[in-house]
Amino acid sequence: VQLAESGGGLVQAGGSLRLSCAASGFRLDDYAITWFRQPPGKEREGVARISNRDGKIYYSDSVKGRFTISNDYTTNVVFLQMNSLKPADTAVYYCHTWLQGNGDCWGQGTQVTVSS
User: pLDDT, tens digit, for every residue of 100-112?
Assistant: First the structure.
């Protein structure tokens, strides 16, 4: 059971990145996936969540209107499309789920750096 993020990098303010969270060992179909981020020196915060069972989506106020979470069941991947990036979006981004019998499952994280 594993989550693996990819797609981070360095981008100028106003640019875009798309992060991927690939699941292995389980199917995303019945679980909720949350994207968290942890800026330097700050606590981890949730920014987007998709409940694959009922399709409900949540965004934090800080990213609403700029980030879009989506999933691809055929490839078992959840995406985070990030547009209009700001220096304040600089952080390590993690995906997370909770699996019955396994508990919390975190990816290793991917670094996003937005230059001004």
Answer: 888 999 999 999 9
Half-sphere exposure of 72 toward its Cβ, with a 13 Å CA cutoff?
9
The DSSP code for 55 is -
As a whole number of angstroms, the longest Cα–Cα distance in the chain is 44
Quote the CA–CA distance of 64 and 14 in Å, as a whole number: 15
| C-alpha distance across the termini of the chain, in Å | 38
The encoded tokens of residue 44 equal 């981890």
Tally the residues of the chain: 116
Residue 73 pLDDT grade (very low, low, confident, very high; cuts 50, 70, 90): confident
What does 25-55 look like in DSSP terms, one character per residue?
SS-GGGSEEEEEEE-TTS--EEEEEEETTT-
